[in-house]
């Protein structure tokens, strides 16, 4: 399908209450949604969640001239053409811009063939994924984990059988909160934690030790994202699996972390590491190290649905939870851009179905974005 136009929508909202983690209080969530328009009027969607403003500028200035007039069938060639524009920025906003365009090219190409992205890429290995709730988040006021029992109860009622709260306030408090959570949910619910880059090596090891009784599936991002040596130390000292990778973008960065035996679960984000093309390269690399891949996703309905397609393609590995990996991460906070087309809660068995509708499986009319648009642009015949 020839691409004749590109539309960019900067969308965002202020979460209420604000979302606290070990490193920051998130008061504003902004995203770039890209729509590639095909010559027959069909459209493919892509997303940037981490640096939407810089990525938006890069798409307009450097990527749009490469894409307009080209066919989505050439998505492999176009990926290499786009990467050739990167220069020094292989781990930042320019790579995120490429990620969004690659995602949209896959959506458009699969739609034009009347099949899902997973089918186009050789066929999914599964038609459902265990959903895990990303949350609850740390309270800004009062005791940081006090609301967790009530919030976990609500997540269980929504059907989640796997829950990943934010911790990282202090090792002792992490231990108390997670041991209490294990007692609350019983032995059959999977629990993980996310420390969002908040700790030193020593604090991460101590927190892991104090959370042992909670029988976590993994401890996510305890350290700064590029601290290969620190992650190696934590991975060696902790009995629990260490997870990470959402902030890594280049294939070389993933190689460095895999080679150093840092992660037992790798979490590349489609909107950071190069879209479907980038994630598949990372997944192949991870297969060589026998490390399971679970896409990180914390954005709009576009990345969530793209992640479902990507996860359907990934190698299965048993990590100790109710189902083999990969799971699918679900932002469990009030997020109107995730639930634009309906709730994304799991079914009664705790899973979410992988759509087999064309493309990434959603029909998103840009008018639905109206209440959240802060800026938009059009190039070509868009
Ligand atoms: Mg995380």
Could you name the key traits of this structure?
single chain; 382 residues; Enolase-like, domain 1; four-stranded antiparallel beta sheet; 34% helix; binds magnesium ion
Provide an overview of this structure.
The chain is of the alpha/beta class. The chain has two domains: 130 residues, 2-Layer Sandwich (Enolase-like, domain 1), CATH 3.30.390; 235 residues, Alpha-Beta Barrel (TIM Barrel), CATH 3.20.20.120. 34% of the residues lie in helices and 18% in strands. The strands form four sheets. Strands 6, 7, 8, 13 and 14 form a five-stranded mixed sheet that branches. Strands 5-4-1-15 form a four-stranded antiparallel sheet. Helix 5 packs parallel to helix 6 and helix 9 runs parallel beside helix 10. The mean pLDDT is 97. It binds magnesium ion (MG). Magnesium ion binds next to loops.
Short note summarizing the structure:
With 382 residues, the protein is an alpha/beta fold.
Profile the largest sheet. Answer: 5 strands, mixed
Encode the helix/strand succession as letters.
Answer: EEEEEHHHHEHEHEEHEHEHEHHEEE
| Separate helix tally | 11
Bound molecules: magnesium ion
**Number of individual domains:** 2
Mean pLDDT, nearest integer? Answer: 97
Describe the global form: globular
